[in-house]
Specification:
Elements: H1 19-38, E1 48-51, E2 60-63, H2 66-72, H3 78-93, H4 98-117, H5 122-143, H6 151-166, H7 175-187
Amino acid sequence: MVSLNPVRVLKQEAEEEKGEIARLSSFIGAIAIGDLVKSTLGPKGMDKILVSYGRNAGSVEVTNDGATILKSIGIDNPAAKILVNMSKVQDDEVGDGTTSVTVLASELLREAERMIDQKIHPQTIIGGWRKAVEVARSALLQATRDNSSNIEAFREDLMNIARTTLSSKILSQHKEHFSKLAVDAVLRLKGSGDLAAIQIIKKTGGTLDDSFLDNGFLLDKKPGVH
């Protein structure tokens, strides 16, 4: 005999959202993530104080790095988790711009929410975004300049990139010194792009200006005591 009772597919504690409720939940979660890290963006961005609970209860960390902040917060909203994973991919692939991509994505979703309220179909919005990507890419390619044949101009381009990156970091007061160190280290790779070849040794004591770049290998050794 066939039972007409509904069959439960999900686990007992699982929840299911459909239609407008699911869409609204996704928008709220993603926009909240963008608002969380928006205030840390740029050279005048503010730091966040992260207080740990559980195993490391009481430990405090001060940072304005978007990837660090997003990794440290607990999230159960699926759309918000997508933005967090996106920032992790950005950090792994590029090493910078984690806050920028998160804020950009959340603002796009904020505008998408308004367009959906105007009864514009989601696929129409996605199609517009794809066209906008092509237009933006074309504009960037037209604005680019290739100075690879001019050593001095190429080095100055790298210095400007390093200065811009360090302007929003804790090293902003020493960005000239560390920009030079970073550019010199990258140029010694001679285009290989293998950043694993650059070894960083941290030593306590001294100041940030005592940091230097050396040729060859540096071995961190302690003198033996007999």
